[in-house]
Specification:
The protein has 245 residues and is mainly alpha-helical. 68% of the residues lie in helices and 4% in strands. Strands 1-2 form a two-stranded antiparallel sheet. The chain starts with a helix and ends with a helix.
Length: 245
Amino acid sequence: MIRAWAAFLLLLAAGVAVAGGFRSSPVDEARKASQDSLSQILRDAEQTEDLAGPSPGALFLRSLVVPGWGQAVLARSRPDLKGKGRKGFWLDMGLAAGVWGLSRYSEIKAAEYRSYAMQEAGAARHGSGSDYWVDVSNYISRDDFNQAMLESNLPDRRYLDQADDWNWGERDRLIRYRDLRAMSERAQSQALATCGVIFVNHVLSGVQALRLARTPGPVELHATTGAVLPGIGLEASFDLGRLLH
């Protein structure tokens, strides 16, 4: 509000300067002095806003995006909050690394079970989508799968292309394939669950930044008595922030 009024007055002074350009030199000097004063008011208003810092909502959004960011900004003007939010930040880094590791492990196992199926069952190199690899896991051969689809009245689900053929022959090979695929799927599920934890961590960090921004900082109150005895006095100090919370 202060900045808006100062800008308005500065523009008003500029207009007066243009309209009064024909006046005498003393008037010009007075007008220049008034403009300098208004410029100083505007600078003071900007400095006041900078000292006030971002709003609680802005701090919430900062920590919502990067855990600990809002707390770090707030700690610039609140030394008592130094270090707040660091745990959330490093937790986020650890969880992100975990998601990457689990996703990578899932991809490695997926490539491994597909390669195993191609070598041991003659499965298609590229398959026919994710459902193909599920069907390869559930049926020992393409013929068994097609027969099951006919019995279930789902003829359109059959694999009619010879390129999609597979046959495990021995059930032990199929069990090994299922184990490899289960490892891949389990890692992918854990990665998704970790993403959920990351989301919760971001929200909690934002809420903490918002709460800290709305909590007054510590204010020390000092009370000193006069001399009870010659050369002896009493002094008491209270932390108002701790007394109120």
